[in-house]
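Fill in residues.
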């Protein structure tokens, strides 16, 4: 199973100033599901991680804990 960081998801959501409900609406899921992802009690699918990253304008590799720095989309990501 691919790695995923719920704490990083929460950090990105909070940087946008979004509630669980607001992020959930943007990725077409429930606030309960987003809360479970953030708590680490449920893992998003690969397509859900892609959608989260696109919505939050960040690299999915950062959500997967494969990058040390939060890099906004549009910037070059170092070779992994």
């Amino acid at each position: 199973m691919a790695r995923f960081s719920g704490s990083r998801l929460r950090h990105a959501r909070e940087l946008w100033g979004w509630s669980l409900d607001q992020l959930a609406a943007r990725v077409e899921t429930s606030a309960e599901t987003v809360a479970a992802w953030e708590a680490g009690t449920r893992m998003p699918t690969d397509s859900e991680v892609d959608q989260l990253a696109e919505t939050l304008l960040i690299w999915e590799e950062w959500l997967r804990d494969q990058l040390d720095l939060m890099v906004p989309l549009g910037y070059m990501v170092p070779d992994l």
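The chain has one domain: 6-63.
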